[in-house]
Specification:
With about 300 residues, this protein is an alpha/beta fold. The chain has one domain: Alpha-Beta Barrel (TIM Barrel). The protein is about 45% helix and about 15% strand. The protein is built from twelve helices and eight strands. It has an eight-stranded parallel beta sheet. Helix 8 links the parallel strand 6 and strand 7. Helix 4 runs parallel beside helix 6 and helix 11 crosses helix 12. The longest helix has 17 residues. It is globular and about 55 Å long. The chain starts with 7 loop residues before the first strand and ends with a helix.
Length: about 300
């Protein structure tokens, strides 16, 4: 398959990146960061999650963030929801697109939510029914598609069955998450091809973590399979509080640099994203793991 000429980077830093931080991030900084990311050309941003603050305290201000962020034509501002209550809250906050996420690995399901996969699938059906009744759209995310305890221990046949189960439910898109960063280019190719056959015309998004340093290598492999949407996080911030050792998503700046350098358009002002990352770094008093973020720091001290 021919590589795409244009790729959309879906910014998840304000949710996936920020939720991992112990230091409370002020709502003002969250809103300002999202606004700066839109200024930089990001056209899809996962700006928060509607989850119980007991489990993810950093997202306790979800309604306030949703209220204060500037809505712009051509920009999708989505939010993560993990249950029907989350969908209800998102709808009340004026969110039009929600990101749903379900486990595909039995051990991960039990470790993460103390649910079985069957429970998670039934909950997803109820959430999708609610999304439809509210006139919203949903991206369905499948977690640990490339492995949980070891590479490939999530059954590919089961993933394909899940995709077939939901493919006629009006999904806006389907996200495949390498939650633990265990994917490699061969797995990317093989699993994408199987899922693409099952998904039909549903757009596929890859959500890659860079835990083992293969994030951009896996982007390149996915491009060869025609994938043109990737989740990224400013500066590579983030991780998963429920997966020990998991690092952040591939960095927005690094991914945009790779794509732009080979003539694949992203429409993103890399320097502007880097400035937004730098402000967050300054507040957190920590260095983001992204390479471009590192270059920005080096220039600021030279």
């Amino acid at each position: 398959m021919t590589r795409p000429k244009h790729v959309q980077l879906c910014e998840v830093g304000p949710r996936d990146g920020f939720q991992f931080e112990d230091k409370p991030i002020p709502t003002d900084l969250k809103v300002r960061t999202i606004d700066r990311l839109m200024d930089a050309g990001l056209t899809r941003i996962q700006m928060t999650s509607f989850v119980h603050p007991r489990w993810v305290p950093q997202m306790a201000d979800a309604e306030e963030v949703a209220k204060r962020v500037d809505r712009r034509d051509g920009v999708v501002l989505s939010a993560l929801c993990l249950n029907r209550r989350g969908v209800e809250r998102a709808a009340d906050a004026g969110i039009n697109v929600v990101d749903l996420s379900i486990a595909t690995n039995e051990q991960h399901a039990r470790d993460n939510t103390n649910m079985t996969i069957d429970d998670a699938l039934q909950q997803a059906e109820l959430m999708l029914d609610l999304v439809a009744s509210k006139g919203m759209q949903a991206q369905l995310g499948l977690q640990t598609v490339f492995g949980y305890s070891r590479p490939g221990d999530t059954d590919l046949g089961f993933i394909v069955d899940v995709v077939k189960r939901f493919r006629d439910d009006g999904l806006e898109s389907l996200s495949l998450a390498d939650s633990t960063g265990m994917a490699n280019p061969i797995m990317i190719r093989n699993r994408l091809r199987a899922v693409q056959d099952a998904a039909g015309n549903i757009p596929i998004v890859l959500h890659l973590h860079d835990t083992r340093g293969l994030g951009l290598v896996n982007v390149w492999a996915a491009l060869d399979e025609g994938i043109d949407r990737f989740d990224t996080s400013l500066g590579g911030l983030g991780g998963c509080p429920f997966i020990p050792g998991a690092t952040g998503n591939i960095a927005t700046e690094d991914t945009a640099w790779l794509l732009d350098s080979v003539g694949i358009k992203t429409g993103i002002d890399i320097a502007a994203v880097s400035e937004a990352t730098f402000e967050v770094e300054q507040f957190l008093r920590k260095d983001a793991p992204g390479r471009i973020a590192g270059l920005r720091r080096a220039r600021s001290t030279s």
